[in-house]
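Help needed: design a sequence for this.
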């Protein structure tokens, strides 16, 4: 059996959608963001490009995307974006799918932080919460790497 809900987050400096529907991700971070300056560190623009899917009729509650920055308590995200159940009912129509293929409700949401202020090292965590269910959608480690000062 597949999971009730799943997804991923691309962490990047900018995002654009072309008129053809293609997405462009600029300055994508993969596993770690190396910060080469003291904290607090300010990024003028940062995008959390969230791709989320769930099985139809699985949840009756509203959905919430929660972004925790390094230092945030587990119950207090820095960013929270609610998504009402009604807006998730649009599923991707694909004429190539047979009746036996699994249908999914999909949401794509680029969350833009302008600016994003990081206060310390740690992990940026993205979660989707619906009632008692939590889906982990991505983590990016923030590591400080200050330049070495040559000895005098």
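Sure. Designed sequence:
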């Amino acid at each position: 059996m597949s999971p009730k809900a799943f997804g991923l987050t691309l962490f990047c400096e900018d995002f654009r959608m072309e008129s053809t529907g293609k997405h462009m991700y600029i300055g994508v971070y993969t596993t770690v963001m190396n910060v080469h300056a003291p904290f607090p560190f300010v990024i003028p623009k940062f995008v959390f490009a969230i791709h989320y899917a769930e099985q139809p009729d699985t949840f009756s509650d509203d959905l919430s995307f929660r972004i925790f920055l390094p230092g945030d308590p587990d119950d207090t995200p820095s960013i929270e974006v609610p998504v009402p159940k009604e807006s998730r009912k649009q599923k991707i129509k694909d004429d190539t799918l047979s009746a036996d293929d699994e249908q999914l409700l999909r949401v794509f949401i680029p969350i833009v932080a302008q600016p994003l202020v990081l206060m310390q090292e740690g992990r940026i965590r993205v979660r989707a919460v619906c009632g008692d269910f939590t889906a982990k959608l991505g983590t990016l480690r923030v590591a400080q790497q200050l330049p070495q000062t040559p000895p005098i």
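The chain is about 0% helix and 55% strand.
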